[in-house]
What does this fold into?
Amino acid sequence: MNDDASRMSRRQLLGSVAGAGAAIALAPRSAAAEFAMSDELNHIDAPIAADSLASISDFEKAARVRMSSMAYEYVSGGAGDEQTLAWNEGAYREITLRSRVLVDVSQLDTTVQLFGRTLPHPILLAPTAYHKIVHPDGEIATARGAAAADTTMIVSSFATVSIEEIARAVPKAPLWFQLYVQPDRGFTRALVQRAEQAGCSALCLTVDTPVLGARNRETRVSFQLPAGMTRANLESLSPATASSSHRPPEGAIYSEVLEPRLTWKDVEWLRGIAKVPVLLKGVLDADDAKRAAELGVDGLSVSNHGARNLDTVPATVTALPRVAEAVNGRLPILLDGGIRRGTDVLKALALGATAVAIGRPYLYGLAVDGSAGVSRIMQILRTEFEMAMALTGRTSLSSIDRTVLWE
Ligand SMILES: Cc1cc2nc3c(=O)[nH]c(=O)nc-3n(C[C@H](O)[C@H](O)[C@H](O)COP(=O)(O)O)c2cc1C
It folds into this structure.
């Protein structure tokens, strides 16, 4: 598609799409598919039919023209020079698969057992903050899309809709809660109880963010929550009345809503007060994984926070085998970071993950077409994963092991 004639026609089409919101409403499929393949950017105000897009990368391109530049930079950016951001996705391309033939793959079982429940498939929505900057209905739309796709959503402490409102919007859908321990432990305890009462069946304690990383792209767009949006779960938190031990230490790297004093003792404290399973989110190191298993936490999430914190740590799929070895089957292991294809899911499971989670992909789905976009992202990934299982001759998750890999 490099000849001038086709370039011209694409540009003309893009021009008409950008110039008239009606154009995309009249012909959403062709226009959406056209700019999904294009590198050119024109802002589009109308939703784009999610079922016209074929891959996660189509969604990322479409999302770019739907999102404000502040939202896009916030969501897509990583820390530092974004080495780890590139590795998270790139590492999967370095792992080769073994296709197998003449296996009856007419029935595939993608169910997975997690904390006494059976999930229909092993892909969850990782917790991400501030969905209202991506879509006006925020986390409500995400939750509806997840519920429609039989997917567990892990709600962020920094959601722009409260955990109670989200749970009310999707009464029977599976929800977990991600916890950023607050300097005020009394508030934190109340937050845990609120999440449990709202029906969250597990807690992901994020342990990789005592401080944020150097997020240059956020700095360049002066990222801040737009007026009218709040961290809804933290609204009753009152820094003004907090005692000095609840205030962050002096220094530019600290935040009022992150806890730099968090240690293993707090993990024990949380396990003591929680009524639901507690996972540690953000473990990359085998020694930390071993300690977590010895402490008796219920699960681990191998994560580098979507490459947003410490640049040049390895890709999560690179770190996974050592963590899996250290844990030695004692705990379920979730993995997130860079999952963009069903083959990535297969590779992560082959290297020791029990299940995986996605972050940016469903935010792109949300930006493109609200809850329908979130469901479509899940449909694409699940379908690709089933194809990958069938083409490697695996009919259930228990039959996925390292022999899937060309090693
Ligand atoms: C925009 C954005 C916001 C995030 N917010 C949170 C958060 O509030 N809490 C948390 O534990 N992780 C957060 N994460 C990290 C994700 O849970 C997850 O680790 C990461 O997105 C996975 O990588 P992926 O985006 O490549 O799929 C965020 C990630 C993104 C992209």
The chain has two domains: 12-76, 87-404. DSSP finds 15 helices and ten strands in the chain. The longest strand covers residues 175-179. The radius of gyration is 21 Å.
